[in-house]
Write a structure and sequence with these properties.
Number of strands: 5
Order of helices and strands: HHHHHEEEEHHHEHHHHHH
Structural class: mainly alpha
Shape: globular
Number of helices: 14
Number of domains: 1
């Protein structure tokens, strides 16, 4: 909004600060946090009044039965805070910024549909799993199509060399590993978005676990977005320049602020759950950001907690179907540690610490390439 005001009107010198992405990102984060703090209690009362309360599955850890009746669908608070901050401090002339915000909200609508089916329509598993996967793939395909059609083919540059939109970069290497054919690139991008989306969804099983690690990962991607979108910084760090992509650091800062604000109400014992409304939206945001930044492989490190959680489910299902035996006491893996006697709070904090370590490792790849 301030970008548009500055474009059409003369503004006092102080407001020239809004020309700087770093300032707007900081303000977006603080605003999202304040909005979440301010409307958190009101949102919880609203969800309770609408009887949007969590139903706990019988086959989960017995300690989770005490959480039955906790308000869910709190993702609307996170998404609302992000949207308000982006409207105030984002540049809506930036295509990637608008695309990322729009599809994060759309994935949130898919999550809301699933939450509504579980909580209001009393369908234990929500919408049909195949339908949920099909819709998420369709949304991911829509994002990829718009991204590909409206992004210059040679957006990424390093020195005098231009790299294709479908080039694949890997950590610790200055040049891309190879360039995908367009069809293969689309297939790869679909895996990144849907994989990230549902991995965060699987991780959202303990109070504060998912939103805490999403905030950590988004902070890391925000720093990378600013550096890769700033030619001077990118040249110094041997990064390929991604034109104008530093603007999405404003979106990511708003996401981090909203996530931290939500943690105030979501830390153990949680007063509200974000539900699929939040987890599908935030997970897809990480995947889409990685694609825009050409950091799809790095996301495996940055979002390592989500990767581990998803792999634990895949291994558990495969082992049971092939051998008739389970590898873990329960999947995802955080339930395995719970059943081994690790208290929930300790487990969540340890997973946060691992997430911080992985994020620092991700940032180290920038300077070491």
């Amino acid at each position: 909004m301030f970008e548009l005001i500055g474009k059409y009107f003369d503004v006092p010198g102080f407001f020239r600060l809004f020309d700087y992405v770093t300032f707007r990102a900081l303000m977006a984060s603080l605003t999202a946090m304040i909005v979440t703090f301010s409307f958190g209690n009101k949102t919880i009362r609203l969800l309770m009044g609408l009887n949007f309360r969590e139903t706990i599955r019988d086959d989960g850890p017995s300690s989770h039965q005490s959480k039955k009746g906790t308000p869910s669908m709190g993702g609307i608070l996170i998404l609302g805070s992000i949207t308000i901050s982006c409207i105030l401090f984002g540049n809506f002339n930036n295509f990637h910024f608008v695309l990322l915000l729009l599809f994060t909200l759309i994935f949130g609508m898919l999550g809301f549909w699933d939450d509504y089916a579980k909580i209001v329509l009393k369908k234990r598993k929500g919408i049909n799993g195949k339908v949920k996967l099909a819709v998420s793939i369709f949304l991911a395909l829509s994002f990829c199509s718009l991204y590909f059609l409206f992004t210059p083919e040679f957006l990424y540059t390093k020195g005098n060399i231009q790299y294709s939109l479908t080039s694949l970069f890997i950590p610790f290497q200055k040049v891309p590993l190879f360039t995908f054919p367009v069809i293969i690139a689309f297939f790869f991008w679909l895996i990144v978005i849907t994989g990230s989306c549902h991995a965060v969804n699987l991780t959202d099983g303990l109070d504060g676990l998912a939103v805490g690690n999403v905030s950590i990962a988004a902070s890391t991607l925000g720093v990378i977005a600013y550096l890769t979108g700033t030619p001077v910084a990118a040249a110094y760090l041997n990064l390929p320049v991604v034109e104008n992509v530093h603007e999405i650091s404003v979106f990511l800062a708003a996401l981090v602020g909203a996530g931290i604000g939500f943690l105030w109400f979501n830390t153990p014992p949680a007063r509200v759950f974000m539900g699929d409304t939040g987890s599908l939206a935030l997970g897809s945001a990480l995947g889409m950001t990685a694609i825009i930044l050409k950091k799809e492989i790095l996301l495996i490190i940055t979002g390592g907690i989500f990767v581990i959680e998803a792999i634990s489910v895949i291994l558990q299902v495969a082992s049971f179907k092939l051998r008739g035996k389970r590898i873990f006491k329960m999947a995802p893996i955080h339930h395995h540690f719970e059943l081994k006697g690790c208290p929930e709070t300790r487990l969540v904090v340890r997973f946060w610490l691992i997430g911080i370590i992985l994020s620092l490792l991700s940032l180290s790849t920038i300077r070491l390439q």
